[in-house]
Design a protein that fits this description.
Shape of chain A: globular
Helix content of chain B: over 70%
Distance between the termini of chain A: 34 Å
Oligomer: heterodimer
Number of strands of chain B: 0
Largest sheet of chain B: none
Largest sheet of chain A: 6 strands, mixed
Number of helices of chain B: 13
Largest interface: A-B, 33 and 27 residues
Order of helices and strands of chain B: HHHHHHHHHHHHH
Structural class of chain B: mainly alpha
Helix content of chain A: 25-40%
Number of strands of chain A: 10
CATH architecture of the largest domain in chain A: 3-Layer(aba) Sandwich
Number of domains of chain A: 2
Radius of gyration of chain A: 18 Å
Number of domains of chain B: 1
CATH superfamily of the largest domain in chain A: P-loop containing nucleotide triphosphate hydrolases
Number of helices of chain A: 9
Strand content of chain A: 15-25%
CATH topology of the largest domain in chain A: Rossmann fold
CATH topology of chain B: ABC transporter involved in vitamin B12 uptake, BtuC
Shape of chain B: globular
Radius of gyration of chain B: 19 Å
Structural class of chain A: alpha/beta
Order of helices and strands of chain A: EEEHEEHEHHHEHEHEEHH
Strand order of the largest sheet of chain A: 6-7-8-3-9-10
CATH superfamily of chain B: ABC transporter involved in vitamin B12 uptake, BtuC
Strand content of chain B: under 5%
Chain lengths: 243, 310
């Protein structure tokens, strides 16, 4: 499989490197889980790979080209990130929010064309949020809201999607539903998804690969089968007892 | 009410109010020999002043409220008008007479200085209430400087400053209209160019970046636009309170949209109508009326959003 996004011996962090240099490859159409203890640098890694912050050292390549050679706008046509803890406008409707995903394709007056509206509609359908497109974002449950956030990213028609803790507030049925949806998207549309999560048992069932912080200063990328063997996830042993 | 009807209603009201502004007054336009002079030197400039202020302040208020994610933001509450006032005070009170070329840049720099400080502080304090307090503090500091200037100035220039400080649509000269108009247009263009940013900043700066927009670039665009708009109104009409704060809320209540493609024109439509309505009564102090209209709006907003403002 071809890789869409590649990081070669990068270090991440703002003022100092959080981990020793590591390599990452994100293949087309793969669903990859990002695991690690709190504060290990998962969000920093996502922001670095998404080009929101520069790597501390090393290079991130998107479609074989250095990510920093892309303009912000070019980047937004290929990569986007969903932060689940983002602030929301209390009075914005679901469809207006999802329509923001078309902003990178609009003119400076933020107009929408026929095709944009069609794509927005499709994103609403795919995430099963179409039936409440006229509701205010602030009135949705966490499960519904997470799907709406995802719909915005789908409307943006990217090749790489980063999700920061998408299951943080979700109950079991919603988690299963969202995992199934993400799996389907990667298989059917060739979208590559990297999501940070603590839901290990779902990762085993749904994800193709795992990128893990070992809690000391190393980052590994392994297939799911390899990841759950050996000492890679040693830091999870402490809380696996609770699962 | 359907969307088109609302627009039609406000456009109709707009022309209706212009007509009455031009027609009404102590001098009859049809019998008096002074009619032409009154029309061109008093009423026409007053109408222009009301319209331009009715565009500039609501546009500023709307973009500030969105950018700072704070429903109670506005050029006067945040001290941006005070910053512009300092620039004006410096020239009016020191007796330096460089005309408009001196006053406007000074006012614009004052306004931009305050907005820049606000932006800087906003990074450290996430709370909307803290931002308002900072705005209050900034205007206190600015007013302290103005008071110092007043203390050391002559009674003649003091009088001029106090008269200007009351705020009025009637001080604009017909010869100043083209300049005022082009400044408002220029400031508006800066904001217009930032519509995509304004539509997405409500969801945070990371979200803005995910959509391919540069936070720093558009923040500067909005702040420059707001500074030009606020400074030009302050120079020509004095500091005017509440118009910028209140109108965006009325626009939202009437047009029910969060999209700035709708909110910007809506705020302008409602802003010009409101200020033309007030300018029908040039004898009444402008800021008194604005406060009477604006304060209730602030209270309504406070009560309605008691969950979101912390």
């Amino acid at each position: 499989m071809t890789s869409v996004l590649e990081a070669n011996s990068i270090e991440i962090g703002y003022h100092s490197s959080l981990v020793s240099p590591f390599d990452i490859k994100l293949r087309k159409g793969s669903l990859v889980a990002l695991l690690g203890p709190n504060g290990s640098g998962k969000t920093s890694l996502i922001k670095t790979l998404a080009g929101i912050i520069p790597p501390y050292s090393g290079m991130v390549k998107f479609l074989g080209k250095d990510l920093k050679d892309f303009s912000l706008l070019e980047k937004s046509h290929g990569i986007t990130t969903v932060f689940m803890n983002q602030s929301i406008h209390p009075q914005i409707k679901v469809k207006d929010y999802v329509s923001l995903g078309r902003s990178p394709y609009s003119n400076f007056l933020d107009a929408r064309r026929e095709t944009d509206l069609k794509i927005v509609n499709q994103a609403l359908e795919e995430t099963r949020t179409l039936h409440f497109e006229d509701r205010f974002l602030s009135t949705l449950s966490d499960g519904e809201r997470s799907r709406v956030f995802l719909a915005r990213a789908l409307a943006q028609e990217v090749q790489v999607l980063f999700l920061d803790e998408p299951f943080a507030f979700l109950d079991i049925p919603n988690t299963v539903y969202l995992f199934n949806l993400l799996k389907k998207l990667t298989q059917e549309t060739g979208l590559s998804i990297l999501l940070s999560t603590h839901q290990l048992h779902y990762v085993k069932d749904y994800c193709d690969e795992v990128i893990a912080f070992d809690g000391r200063n190393k980052v590994f990328q392994k297939s799911v089968e390899d990841a759950f063997e050996g000492e890679l996830l040693a830091w999870t042993k402490d809380f696996e007892a609770f699962l | 009410m359907p969307f088109r009807f609302k627009i039609f209603f406000f456009v109709f009201l707009f022309f209706f109010l212009i007509f009455f502004n031009l027609l009404m007054g102590p001098v009859s336009l049809f019998k008096d020999t002074l009619a032409l002079k009154v029309f061109f030197e008093i009423r026409l400039p007053r109408v222009f002043a009301a319209i331009l202020v009715g565009i500039a302040l609501p546009v500023s208020g709307l973009s500030l409220q969105t950018m700072f994610r704070n429903p109670l933001a506005g050029p006067s509450v945040l001290g941006i008008s005070s910053g512009a006032s300092l620039g004006v005070a410096f020239f009016l009170l020191s007796g330096l007479n460089l005309g408009f070329l001196g006053v406007f840049p000074a006012a614009a720099i004052g306004a931009f200085g305050v907005s820049f400080l606000l932006l800087l502080f906003n990074r450290f304090f996430e709370s909307p209430v803290v931002l308002l307090i900072i705005g209050l503090m900034l205007s206190s500091i600015v007013n302290a400087f103005v008071n110092l200037l007043m203390f050391f100035s002559h009674s003649e220039s003091l009088k001029a400053y106090v008269a200007w400080g009351m705020g009025s649509f009637s001080k604009l000269l017909i010869s100043e209209v083209p300049l005022f108009l082009s400044l408002v247009l220029l400031g508006f263009l800066f904001v217009l160019f930032s519509i995509r940013y304004l539509n997405s900043i409500y969801f945070g700066s990371d979200f803005v970046q995910s959509l391919g927009l540069s936070n720093r670039f558009y923040q500067s665009m909005v702040l420059i636009g707001v500074s030009i708009l606020t400074a030009s109104t302050t120079v020509f009409c004095g500091p005017i309170a509440f118009l910028g704060l209140a109108v965006p809320h009325i626009a939202y209540a009437v047009f029910k949209s969060t999209n700035h493609r709708v909110l910007l024109p809506a705020s302008i439509l409602i802003g010009v109508n409101l200020s033309l309505l007030v300018s029908l009564f040039p004898q009444i102090p402008l800021n008194a009326v604005m406060s009477l209209l604006g304060v209730p709006v602030v209270f309504i907003v406070l009560f309605r959003s008691s969950q979101t403002i912390r």
